Amino acid sequence: MKSEARGTLHVSKATRAIRRGAAWLLMPCSLCLALALPLLTCTSANATEASDGQTAQQAQATQNSPPNGGTATQKPDQSRPHTASGTSVSASSGQNSKKEKSTDLVEEVIVTGTLLHEVDPVTPVTTITSAEIQNQGYSTLSEVIEQLPQNFKAGASQESNPVNAIGALASNNYSFASGVNLRGLGANATLVLLNGQRLAPTALGGVVDISSIPTSIIDRVEIVADGASALYGSDAVAGVVNIITKRSFSGLQLSARAFSISDGKAPNYAGSVLGGTAWSGGNLIADFDYERDNQLLAANRSFAASLPDPTTLLPKGEKYSYFAGLNQEFTQRLSVSANSLITHRTYDETTLLSIYPLPTKNDGSADQYNLGAQLQYEISQQWSAMLIGQWSKEEDLSNITYPNFNQRYSTSYAYRVSTVEPRVDGKLFDLPGGSVRLALGGQFRSERYDETDEVTGSAGIGGPMTVKPPIVGLSRQVRSAYGELALPIIGTGNSMMLAQELRLGVSVRYDHYSDFGSTTNPKFGISWTPIEGLRAHASYGRSFQTPTLYQTSNALNFAYEWTVPDPKSPTGSSLLFSTDGTNPNLQPETSKNFYGGLSFSPESLQGFRVDASYFHVKFTNRITRLISDGFFPQYVLQKEGELGAFVTRNPSAAQIEQELAVPGRQVLDLNNGFCVVGTAGCPGEDPASFAALANIGYVNASTEKVGGVDLSAQYLGPQETYGRLSADLAGTFYTTYQRMLTPTSAESSPLNTIYNPLRFRAKANVGWEWAGWRVNGRLNYSNSYENTNAVNPKCPGASDCDIASWTTVDLSLAYQWPSHVRVALDVTNAFDRAPPHISGPAGTYPYDPVNANALMRAFAVSVSTKW
Predict the structure, then answer these.
(1) CA distances in angstroms from 852 to 188, 599, 848, 856, listed in the order given
(2) How far apart (Å, rounded) are the C-alpha atoms in residues 773 and 618?
(3) Distance of alpha carbon 154 from alpha carbon 274, whole angstroms
(4) Which end of the chain has the lower number of beta carbons within 10 A, N or C?
(5) Would the pLDDT of 58 be above 60?
(6) CA 501 – CA 827 distance, rounded (Å)
(7) Chain centroid offset of residue 204 CA
(8) What DSSP element (H or E) covers 60?
(9) Which DSSP state fits 161?
(10) Which pairing describes strands 858-866 and 822-828: parallel, antiparallel, or unpaired?
(11) For residues 234 and 20, is the Cβ–Cβ distance under 8 A?
């Protein structure tokens, strides 16, 4: 049995080595291609001249790629202000969009949140363009997302990981990945797309790692902060983030950057080569990107010097990425597009845990392979069809070295997602208010998760690795059908007083899963424009999130036999059998979402827009690991009222024997020195002697209710002789954040407490550009909150019971010469504000890594040039 397992592992390692080798071989090929592109572009001088003649904003509008889970072909809306914040909100009328053709290719602007051509989604879409990412001095996509007021870093950032165990699901972020966690509902409750297609997540936490997606290939990022399972299926509970890559680029661009230049830390370095060429009816784009990150140690930060040395606050690592995109129009009706993204990331950190004398080392790698293609055919002037294919795989290797135990553990994870999706959409008929449009489609998706664990034996850290059972392999298939209908009741043809526009949107999706059954999720939306410049919108829908394949596997499978305190026992204690781990009987989590608000953009003040939206999510049947929520075995019978049905009193011997016989389960007898039941000298307790049976592993148990207001205001001024001014404000304020850990537990609110979402976060930007110069200033604000870890017995009321608010200022200055050479200087946290201090028990982090960061003032210098 073990030899078979080893063989499987060796094949896996060989496969990984081949793929990694292929990735390394792609690097010189990409460089050669990029260097050859200037010669190739000589044959397409006209296209290049046309491209050079565009403004930067116009170029942005023509670099959009059609492969998308939801596309809307339209003209770029020049009335939408793209401000210094990088946030513009798309919420215009639904039927004023037209198809634009360049000399060779049909250019499409993708709008996330709809599957229909020529229709804007009812729910506003926040857009962050590549120019805005650059002008604000962001070095990585992770930095862009972390600045969003709706985002929360717990379980979805390098600073929330198994080592510090700070933030919900931190223990599952084994690869130190950076993801998206809208509303703080978990990284796997936000659907992250690349050109509208799913990316493979990390195996345990369901985090889609965005840290290796280079900003050099991004055209824009679109964010829908509302449930969208009626269009996209599972995971779109808190919202959807769609990362859209550049579709076209002519010439060659070289970029270099040194960033995170901070006292007590070596700088990070990054560079990229971007090239592209075009021909009649097609184009090609390729990019190579490299980044090296250096660690930040607690010893180099005065506010964290109390932590054991060494303690790594930010790990070191390297990233490589290779991107290629191809677009070809065969006829006026038939076109194809394809893209690939291959990334390789390593990480390395060392931390001394206070309970052990020697530091523990975590290192490993994360490789991702993504391929996508779309074939589009124009059936008629009114109808189009497309066939979309996608394949994505994440391969991770996690190594943990424990010198204190002379042991080393190594785990290989793999998660694969592949889809095939046909779709048609077009106009059904005309009404006085506009055209009724319909989209219909289907999808077949396959997912697979594999895990293999190895451990060194008695030979110690330097000894050979031995496979540790179980070897996990699990897959599922999903068959889906969906539709979307846009119904314009009032429009240009029949507008009236207080009703310039009224349109309805209806979408529904049916998904059948091979491992738990079927689910149907609808969504209804309405958009009303009473007067020019003022729009009201509202939507209501159901969303869902399936258990991860890890959660339904047998990868984590423990049970504990222990005599614990029992208020109902005459002796004060009872023998408890508690189970802990993954659960094959888990069911999907479900949500009901409401999102509604107002958008105002007066004609008298061109370029100004203000948006205010109320959101509410009721997230039920949530999957939680009860032992991680404080239901440890020794407290189970004292908290029996909260656990309810998860505790069974006076179980029969047959019930206990059934639990003991679960395949792959490791039973620990905590009354006899944590020995493994069934091994020599550890017979275990009599099955008939247990007073209670409890499940404290993964279960469908909790409910969360989250509500609040998203606010934004933007202004993009006219071009004047003295330049152009832009400004914006964006913030999120929570009115409610309630949680019930189990159906019988009391409702509580983690809002505005340590390691949890804050009640109010905001950012404000001011930008100015003139004659090649670009200046930007950003103010970031997080409110004060409660320190529930405080050791002061006078809490609440004492000075250290509250954590202070935190305000930082970021500055950027850039100049671009007419020769396409650009130089920029960026300063993060310009006034060197330390994160707010936190008091707590010995070993507690003296700051909150998921609501602040330890970098302090940091500089970045970048230069780029284009031919």
Answers:
(1) 22, 31, 6, 10
(2) 47
(3) 33
(4) N
(5) no
(6) 45
(7) 14
(8) helix 56-61
(9) S
(10) antiparallel
(11) no
Tell me 247's DSSP state: -
Task: Quickly list DSSP for 289-339.
Answer: EEEEE--EEGGG-GGGTTS-SS-EEE-EEEEEEEEEEEEEE-SSSEEEEEE
The CB-side HSE value for 412 (13 A sphere, CA atoms) comes to 23
Q: How is residue 471 written in tokens?
A: 């070897």
Q: Which residues share a beta bridge with 455?
A: 409, 466
Tokens 């080595």 belong to which residue? 17
Structure tokens at 486: 């846009």
Length of the chain measured in residues: 867
pTM of the model: 0.88
Alpha helices in 671-741 (DSSP H): none
- With residue 666 as reference, give the H or E element that holds it: strand 666-669
Which of 89, 94, 72, 232 is closest to 527 using CA atoms?
Answer: 94
Amino acid at 420: V
- Long-range contact set of residues 92-98: C-beta below 8 Å, sequence gap at least 24: 92/120, 93/120, 93/491, 93/501, 93/529, 94/119, 94/120, 94/434, 94/486, 94/488, 94/501, 94/503, 94/527, 95/119, 95/434, 95/435, 95/488, 95/491, 95/503, 97/72, 97/73, 98/73, 98/74
Q: Where does 635-777 have alpha helices with state H? A: 640-643, 653-660
Range list of β-strands (E), 491-625: 501-513, 517-531, 534-545, 557-565, 573-581, 589-600, 608-625
C-beta separation of 538 from 531 below 8 A:
no
Tokens of 815: 């100049």
The average pLDDT across 451-467 equals 86
Interval 478-506: pLDDT, tens: 999 999 999 999 999 999 999 999 999 99
> Scanning the structure block, which residue is given the tokens 């931390």?
351
Q: Measure the CA–CA gap between 835 and 303, rounded to whole angstroms.
A: 8
| CA–CA separation, 685 and 688 (whole Å) | 9
In this structure, the strands spanning 383-402 and 316-329 are unpaired
Q: Round to whole Å and give the CA distance between 408 and 387.
A: 47
Distance of alpha carbon 732 from alpha carbon 709, whole angstroms: 6
Q: How many CB atoms lie within 10 A of CB 794?
A: 10
What is the tens place of the pLDDT at every residue in 592-645? 999 999 999 999 999 999 999 999 999 999 999 999 999 999 999 999 999 999
For 510, residues 6+ apart whose C-beta sits below 8 A from its C-beta are 480, 481, 482, 518, 519, 520
Q: Find where tokens 């229709």 sit.
A: 119
CB 560 within 8 A of CB 668: yes
